[in-house]
Design brief:
homodecamer; alpha+beta; 434 Repressor (Amino-terminal Domain); Cyanate Lyase, Chain: A, domain 2; 2 domains; two-stranded antiparallel ribbon; about 20% strand; EC 4.2.1.104 (chains A, B, C, D, E, F, G, H, I, J)
């Protein structure tokens, strides 16, 4: 069974069994958003945790080594996302992408925010006009550096 | 002069005059990332601030009403960004877009993070393994609601 | 069974059983266009209504939790719709999108019509030269606002 | 001067002269959204009105015959609009396009809402939770009909 | 069974049974090109004719209500057709699309040829240098008209 | 001056001088749609006719050899046309392309309608329910033939 | 079974049975490249030859009428081919397409090389620096001609 | 002046001066199709020949070093060519690309026809049914070989 | 079974059996990256090695002739890769593609690095700031040469 | 002057002055490929070096601050490169991208080769069958790590 098929089965099994993502994250003691991303096929899941999750979700244990392998990442079905909840983040890139780039360069110089040495948090913050979704992207700054390996 | 031409002139004038984005933001007393986005053509700039910025940047005052008009937004030259600093945020969407969506739905129910009632912050956070770029997206949660206007 | 497969089964079952969308909407006491959109996979259907609809359509009750989950939205098979009935609305965007944008900004200022706090109506209106389709899009105005959560 | 260049000049001249779209529409006694669409290059403007508008906007009178010619329509710079105000209407198509199609077919049978014999209105409607943008699309129903010309 | 699957079965069954499109059109007493288009999934087929065709083609009668429903139209597998016979018509659009537009506007004014109130004929015409394919597109002229429904 | 620039000048000059396409076609004694297509950059215009047209339109005589050269054809600014008048013909391809293909094959066998040995006519035909646009595509049938040159 | 499925079966059966394309071409006494193209789904295969090929490849005889029907042509899985052997021919078009066009026009005048009245040969030619692939494209010249059918 | 601008000037100057491609090729004693490709911006032109061509075409001698530099190749304005004369070769790829690939592999084994060690010829061949365009693509066979440089 | 299906089975079987790519490469005594590419469907695998690999991976021996055939190459599921590990190499092309091209031309003249007479190595190189991935692309230089076969 | 315009001027000025990339790199004492990439608009050039290069190339000194700013990176004019020299590297990604990914994961675990902490070398290596282009990509391995900033 390919990782994509396993992902589809996970999505369905979670709903059928009425498990929350939080329950699954707690069962393997990993952060919530990491766990969802991994179960949606975007991260390898170490065999120990994979076995726990497979049992909770009622999946065959043969999925464990596939879950443990590094997947081919990329979870958007189209280059521009159509789902409104996801699209808003693409819109943020369209409207603020240039500003984020300039702000990083002014503060740190030439380089990027790593999306590999990186974590992500989604939180609810109270506000008198209605609670807010606060998404924190937290990645190591990587300066452009022209380095070579030792030969 | 179209807004696009004005944006190109702003980009050059800022470099020629050696002004930082922070100086420009302080001159009009607005948040840094808002100011950059606005000067990159993504927000209208009220005439009062527009006049200050135009003078600082040495632009003709005829740009002021164009800056004050709501622009056609969207700042990526291609649907998938090619610039590495901007691309990392698109990559975050590819890898974590699904997880963000599920985490929002589990915490708030069906709906979205607004990208309109929204602010954005780019900050440096210290870390022993190298300082980090922390980008905070902060938008009002909007639940799907089937409301109608009074006729 | 994925939501997509369930949608395909709903489309067929409705035709096989000769049920109108109106009958389905009335059975769950929801607006017509909301009900069609939900049955076409664009909205979660609460379990109570989902159970009623599943029974009416002769679907297995295992679909109920999948119908109740927030779906990945987006119902056009191509970015530019090919179906003539749907295309006309895309054409309206091509011809009048700029005018709608300017009219909103002149009346309300900078901001958008929400597509989340939103409802939609399709009605027949009589006209001596032939009856007319009147589609009313009704969404809350959301002004651009640079608000932050309390930390 | 091509129609596209004239459109760009109109956009700028209107801002420079501080004219509202409403003032321009009133000057030629045409509906507001029709007038905006026409000035944005989506409709021919009869010579009489074109002359009035050219004078108001300070354009050379040589633009009048170009404004009076049927333009090549289509005002979105990309197939999927990037501007948030315009995008919301594309999102409505993604989420509700199928429902609109089915509702039209259930009420009228096989056919389309004309986008040619068509008018459009953008209005503010009061609502206790915040005023609403109400966009009314009003087009003649055209049934699929296999008719031939007389030979 | 979805309409797409039924279309695939029709294509195969016709070949297996050695039926010509003409025989199928005659069996339901409809024009040839309408019948082919409908059997290729582009038009609803009323139940009476659908039953005749299903029997002729040896399809299960459960397809009849699906054939009778308005389909999601659009029969090109890619935006630019790759099949040479179909491509030539796309090429005609590339080479003569502008001329057709201008000729319509010069003769009729601003408006379109309807593709809904429309019929199509494919005929053989003799010619000393080799017979010719003559395709006649015949659609009602629809003038742009800014009409509204009665409220 | 490139052919594209000349085409843009022709479009403007015709409007400025108030010449109809018919007048231009008559001046060079060529069919109407051929003449429009050629003036829109889709056909070479022999020097004799080119000189007549350049003088009528007030263009410099240096355009004559450029008009006489075979152009790079293809007149749609996007792969899927956005102009409603032109789009309807693309829609005809989406809805009837398969039927046209099958009708040609059933009548003529394997092959195509030539778009090179080809002419096109746009005519008004009266009809009690409103006059009709009749577009006749008339191309030589070319059978697939595996022929080789003499070596 | 659709033509696409039959093509996939042919590809596999040929490898499983160890048959060369040449053997298949000889069995039906047709040119090599025509035979490969036809077996890859790009040409109809007359029933007599189809029966021979089906038997050789061990396919069910029900494929014969499907093979004999004119297929929907177009064999590239993406608009720009990714396979290096095929890509080189696309590259030839990118680098020499304009030159081929100009050379044809200079030698023959306005028109095209037919891809319908056409044959193709792939041959090995010896060369001291390494043997060469010589692909000969041989198509009838078709001059642009504005011809009409007799009415 | 960029190479693209120089190419545009060459195209116009050749027409204005009434020079044939053959005359230009003869003036520098290079093959016809190589010369056209080079003048259309697809090959570097050595300074000696560049000077001859620049003088013949009346271009400033400053273009010579730009013509002598290796250009960024790729001459199709769109991924799928719209010009009918060029498109036919793309169509050949769609219909015969797979057959060419298989024929090369059966004759030569795994590898490609080089498009670098390559020449191209366009010729007229007489035929009783009409003269034919014969395009010969002639490239060295390059077998896939896993070779490494000496370290 | 198509090559694509076999590739999917290989991917799964390797994980299920806990075999490293190195073990598979050693079993057939071929370079590591060649072996991975071949098992991912990008190279033919000679029957002898194919049989060894099929047995190791527990695949049916009927896959051996399919593995031995030249595949249709091209392993990216989208034109721009979404997987971050693969994307970095696309980014290298965006940022350094022009520089690589110019460096090759300055050192070697007009021509290319062959991707056919080519090998590839992925190695770990130690570095005090963290080990480095060193990917060596090693291809024969092919100069542009206008050579023809002997007729 | 925008960075893009400056890049175009650099490209021309270098050719006009007959400077090699090596001479330019030596003048600022930076690696060759870094220098070319920077001059092609892909890296900021510190003011000191920018001044040297501007003088060598005869550019106005006003370009120096623009060269010193971090550019919007991305140098391919199309998503899939059309230039043969550049395309070969895209082809390497199509054929070997999966193998590179798997080899990195097997050697290093989950992570990427950095394209930021990265250098690149293009070298000539002798080989009896013809000299070879050896391109060495050398980037720091970055393991996926779920790290957060200190709050």
């Amino acid at each position: 069974m390919t990782r994509e098929r396993i992902t589809a089965e996970i999505v369905n099994a979670r709903l059928a069994k009425g498990l929350s993502w939080r329950q699954l994250a707690d069962a393997v003691d990993r952060p919530l958003t990491w766990t969802i991303a991994a179960l949606l096929g975007q991260h390898p899941i170490p065999a120990e945790q994979g076995a726990v999750l497979a049992e909770l979700l009622g999946l065959d244990e043969s999925v464990v080594p596939v879950l443990a392998a590094v997947p081919v990442r990329g979870g958007l079905p189209t280059a521009v996302p159509t789902d409104p909840t996801v699209y808003r983040f693409y819109e943020v890139l369209q409207v603020y992408g240039g500003a984020i780039k300039e702000a990083i360069h002014e503060e740190f110089g030439d380089g990027i925010m790593s999306a590999i040495n990186f974590s992500l948090d989604v939180a609810r913050k109270p506000h008198p006009d209605g609670d807010r979704v606060v998404v924190t992207l937290d990645g190591k700054f990587l300066p452009y550096a022209w380095t070579s390996a030792d030969d």
